[in-house]
Amino acid sequence: MTKIAKKKTPRAKKPEPRKINLTDAVGEAFGELECLAEEMRDWAGNIEEKFSSTQKYEDVSTAADSLENIQQPDIDDTLGEIEITIQDPTPSRKPRKPRSRATRCGDACNILSNCISALEEFASSDSADTDEAKVELADDLRGELENVMSEAESVEFPGMFG
Questions:
Q1: How many angstroms separate the Cα of 84 from the Cα of each of 13, 97, 121?
Q2: CA–CA distance, 17 with 155 (Å, rounded to integer)
Q3: Can you say how many angstroms the Cα of residue 31 is from the centroid of all Cα atoms in its chain?
Q4: Distance of CA 56 to the CA centre of its chain
Q5: How far apart are CA 25 and CA 83, in angstroms?
C-alpha cells in the first residue's frame, strides 16, 4: 500500500509594511468604519420589517448607530504630511472567505493606533519643540483619534446566526 502525500496549502506571505501620510491613513481607517456602518444599517433595514422587536435587530441597530456616530476629525495640513508605517493584515489562506466585520474594525483601529503613535512621536520630537501650536494640534488630534478608536473598539458585531 502506498501513501499519498498530502498537498500542503502554501502560507500566505505577510505583506511588506507600507508608508503612507497621516491624512491618507486616517481616511483609509474611516473609509472602513463607514463601510461597516453601511453594512450594519443595511442588515438592520433587511430584518426590520419582520423582526424589529427581536434582540438581533436591536444588536444590529446598536452597532450601526455606534459606527454612524463616529466622526472623522479634521487634519491640519502640517500634520497631514506626517509619514506613518502601516502593516497590512496577512491575506487569508482561503481567498474566497471574507474577513469578519470585527476583524475589519480591528484593522481600522490598528491604522488609527499607528496614527496616534506617529502623532505622539511628532509632538515629542525636537523639531516640534520650536512650534507650540503644531504640538498642540498634534495632541488635540491624537486625543480625538484615541476617542474614535475607543468607540470603534467597543462596537459589538452580532453573529449572523447567534
A1: 22, 29, 10
A2: 27
A3: 8
A4: 24
A5: 9
Q: Which amino acid is at 105?
A: C
pLDDT for 114? 96
Residue-level pLDDT at 92: 61
Q: Could you tell me what percent of the chain has a pLDDT over 90?
A: 62
Full-model pTM: 0.84
Q: What are the helix (H) ranges across 1-158?
A: 22-51, 55-68, 77-80, 101-124, 126-129, 132-153
Based on its alpha-carbon atoms, the radius of gyration of the chain, rounded to whole angstroms, reads 20
How far the first Cα of the chain sits from its last, in Å, is: 46
* pLDDT class of 155 with cuts at 50, 70, 90: very high
Q: Grid coordinates in use for 92?
A: 487569508
The beta strands (E) that lie in the chain are given as: 18-21, 83-86
For 83, list phi and psi in degrees, rounded to 5. -90, 135
Partnered with residue 83 across adjacent β-strands are 21
Contact indicator for 84, 112 with CB cutoff of 8 Å = no
